[in-house]
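Progress note, sequence design subtask.
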């Protein structure tokens, strides 16, 4: 049910954190994995670790805020392995923390372009090939921030809510070709991206008190959800955003 042998998976933001955990899980299930992030060195480190564990992986650096680099990423993948069966859009940015009343146009545009518009661009570039083969899975890593209001992460939350709607729309548009499009909404996870939250003692204390499991997430906690959505085990799941948050939304937990 979870076998990805013969499949090619492209994972953005895969040099560390959630992206790395997902890349390693997909490789462990048999997929050939393209490890992509901004810097070549960290990407190659992850790819080398996958190869050392017996998997197949290649590193292709890409800044997802640049459409030209996204085009080069897709081209490099197709040139090497001729197909993309699983696309994981994990890379995102959040250059601003604070109320929406204080955000600059530049910061807002950067968030929405990178986290939403360029995710759509990448999907539009990759999904048609999946549709031709009548088989494919797209996973967009969103956030539970997109499910509630936020005093400090409003613009980021807006982009992640948009990602959830993007998943629903693309699922409708491409379901006829057996292409599944889903999202994952993590709670607070111990990554460099969220370091400002979990390293803040006051914030962390609130999280630990409000999350039913009594801990924040680790990157590996998201890998199983991604594997489910990428594999035959998830063949009848599309248009959904799977919340993986230790029960935070069920409990109404706040961390920002």
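Output:
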């Amino acid at each position: 049910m979870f076998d990805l042998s013969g499949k090619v998976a492209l994972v953005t933001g895969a040099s560390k954190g959630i992206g790395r955990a997902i890349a390693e899980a997909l490789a462990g299930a048999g997929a050939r994995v393209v490890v992509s992030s901004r810097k070549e060195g960290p990407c190659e480190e992850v790819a080398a670790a996958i190869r050392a564990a017996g998997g197949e992986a290649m590193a292709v650096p890409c800044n997802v805020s640049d459409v030209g680099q996204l085009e080069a990423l897709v081209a490099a993948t197709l040139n090497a392995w001729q197909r993309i069966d699983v696309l994981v859009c994990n890379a995102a940015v959040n250059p601003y923390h604070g109320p929406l009343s204080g955000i600059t146009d530049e910061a807002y545009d950067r968030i929405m372009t990178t986290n939403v518009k360029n995710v759509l661009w990448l999907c539009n570039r990759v999904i048609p090939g999946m549709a031709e083969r009548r088989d494919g899975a797209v996973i967009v890593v969103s956030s539970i921030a997109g499910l509630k209001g936020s005093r400090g992460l409003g613009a980021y939350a807006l982009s992640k809510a948009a990602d959830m709607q993007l998943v629903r729309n693309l699922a409708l548009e491409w379901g006829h070709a057996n292409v599944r499009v889903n999202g994952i909404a993590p709670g607070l996870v111990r990554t460099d991206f969220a370091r400002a939250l979990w390293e803040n003692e006051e914030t962390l204390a609130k999280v630990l008190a409000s999350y039913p499991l009594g801990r924040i997430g680790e990157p590996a906690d998201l890998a199983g959800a991604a594997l489910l959505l990428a594999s035959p085990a998830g063949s009848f799941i599309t248009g959904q955003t799977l919340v993986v948050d230790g029960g935070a939304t069920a409990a109404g937990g706040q961390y920002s």
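The chain has nine helices and seven strands. Work on this subtask will continue into the next period as scheduled.
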